[in-house]
Amino acid sequence: MRAVDQNAQLAAEIRAWMLRVMEEKGLNPATWAKAAGVARTTIARPVKEGYAFVTSSRTLAKLAQAVGADAPDFRQTAQAKIVPLYLPVRHRVQAGHWIEVDLAEQDFPAPPKGVRPDDDYAEWPQWLELVVGDSVDREIPPGHFAHVVDAIEMGYSPIDGDFVVVERRRDQGRLRERSIKQIAIREGRVELWPRSHNPAWDKPLELSAPGEGVEVELVGLVIGAYRGMR
Known about the structure:
Helix content is 22%, strand content 26%. It has helices spanning 3-25, 29-36, 41-44, 57-67, 101-104, and strands at 89-93, 99-100, 126-131, 144-150, 163-170, 175-186, 189-193, 205-206, 215-227. Strands 1, 2, 3, 4, 5, 6, 7, 8 and 9 form a nine-stranded mixed sheet that branches.
């Protein structure tokens, strides 16, 4: 069986398991994610028809434990790799722009041609995000695409100098803002800095002090950027 077919089969089996657990436990992606302490998209994406990435066995075990379900026993899941397909566009990143979660998953632009996953991160999902606005224009101009690795799946811990996709959520997760920030670790504090020519973006976001009623999560590691030519 080709790797791409194997990935698709495993993804379909994981989708079926997640849907079965949600039906048996009376869950939806938001309630299950909250119980497991993961982002809603950790569940919402894999249950969509056509999702071809394989959720890691570690994440599946965490999801199962959170709701008292039996973890799936896919012998090949732990060994499955992301095959070198062209990367899709999954999100837009724009500081200060809050959007309803259900609307955030729609109407993505066409990706630039020929951008493949990075082999150094082949164990984890990768995708592109369209950069909108100027909050990170010193590094990635508007209209370019950021190459992102799933920080949740890889168990990423903040490293000084890295660029990351930051997701802020409010109104019990109904509203979401995604932006790209650079990590600065100072006296044990993790600060998330815009890198912009615009003085409106001159203050950091502290990971430990996001503001009342706001959740903050590092959801992606940015490893590159591309300009869409066609």
